Amino acid sequence: MLEHIELFFKSIFIDNMVFAVFLGMCSYLAVSKKVATAVGLGAAVIFVLAVTVPLNWLLDQYLLRDGALAWLGPEYADYNLGFLSFILFIATIATMVQLVEIVVEKFSPSLYNSLGIFLPLIAVNCAILGGSLFMQARDIPTLGLALNYGISSGIGWFLAILAIAAIREKIRYSNVPAPLRGLGITFIITGLMGIGFQSFGGMLTGDNEPPEGTEPTTVEQVEEKELIKNEIEEDEKAVSFNDAINE
Fold this sequence. Notes:
By secondary structure, this protein is an all-alpha fold.
C-alpha cells in the first residue's frame, strides 16, 4: 500500500510530465488559454494514460521483453520481441485516442470544436508515449502499480495545464511588459511552477536513513554501507602506512 501512495504522489509532483521531463509541452502551451478547454483535454489525457499504460504493461510482460513468450512453451523462451515496443505502444495509444475522440464528439460537440486538432494529436503527444516508456524503463512490477502510474501521471499533466490555464486567464488583465507577452511570460510562469512542484521531493526523500541500531534492508542501503566500510578500511591502511614511514 505504501508503494502505491509513494508512486502516486511522486508521479504527480516530483516526476511531473510537464515540469520534470517537459513532455506534452505543445498541447500544454496551445490549449491552456481557457480553463474549460484545459479541463477537457486534461481529462482526456488522464483517461488515455489510465488505459494505455496498463495495456502496454501487459504487452511488455507477456509479449515484448526477453523471455516473455515462455508462457507459450519452452521453445519460445529465447525469443525477444522488444524491437516491436514502439510500434505496439503507439498502436495501443492511437486506438484509445480514437475512442476518446468519438466519445467527445458524440457527447460534447462544443468541447470537441474547442480542442480542434489537438484532440486527435493526443495520439502523438509525447507525454502519452512517455508514460508507457517510463513504465517499461522503471520495470514497474505489477499491473496495479502500472494502473496507478498511468492515472497519477495523467493527473500530474492535468494539474499542470489547469494551473497554467487559470493563470493565463487572469494574466490578461495584468500589465505584462510588451516583450514578455504571450509565450514569454508563460514560459517564465511554467519555470516557477516547476520549481514549486520539485520542492515536494523532500516529502518522499527527506528521510531515507534507517533508524539507529537497525540493519539496512534495501539493496541501495547495503551497497552504501559496504562502500562506507571499504572507504574506512582504505583510510586506516593509509594511516598505518604513513605511520610506518615516519617510524
